[in-house]
């Protein structure tokens, strides 16, 4: 894969976002630094992290090493991070905390800044801060994660800037059709976290049969299914060979019948821990919860 030929999607503010990216949730500091470097060396452009993951500093180091190894510049990387739940709701606190995030990432801007969760009674004030961060050029685009229709409707009623992105859990086991349809109508780009469903579908009979027909891996079939629904996908692997495999999904297409057979796998079941975060934004209802890298 050559980054010059990577598919990109135009966001509602005109910014182009790569359709395939690397996520770094659940990885240790050493793993994160190495996998980000490896990803850049393998022509990944989009890197997605968050303060809550506890590894932004390692991402910053990995980007610098990747840029040095490939003779690229910072503007060749599409960097996403997210506002920590415990920093939400207080305008000044959020902006100070975000400035520290930029320092850890070794950059003076991010390409996309997201609210990590729609924390009750806080996300509208947080969005006010993100709008000013966007206006000041510290983020080229702003968006949200895990917003359902109710909370997105409320946000839009108070917002001056429509979110460019809503990053949600999406894979063949969970489609979230209501928020997907809402975002399509509002021209809000959807990103898929956990696009492979934590590996639960890699041995599924429907997926493996389609994979054999296309001479692809089950993971490639699942990612292709999401690409054909115009999602930005954030795959995660620490192995360079799997990075290359995950990127090799733009040279085939699933048929309508294959897409429909995968659609039938939907169970509308979130990740096992998901409901513990709604809507306080963390598993224990404690605002200052940050993961130790690799803890989840």
UniProtKB/TrEMBL annotation:
The record marks 82 as: Lowers pKa of active site Tyr. Keywords: NADP, Oxidoreductase. InterPro entries: AKR (IPR020471), Aldo/ket_reductase_CS (IPR018170), NAD(P)_OxRdtase_dom_sf (IPR036812), NADP_OxRdtase_dom (IPR023210). Residues 20-266 form the NADP-dependent oxidoreductase domain. SUPFAM superfamilies: NAD(P)-linked oxidoreductase. The keyword NADP applies. The keyword DNA-binding does not apply. Belongs to the aldo/keto reductase family. This is Aldo/keto reductase.
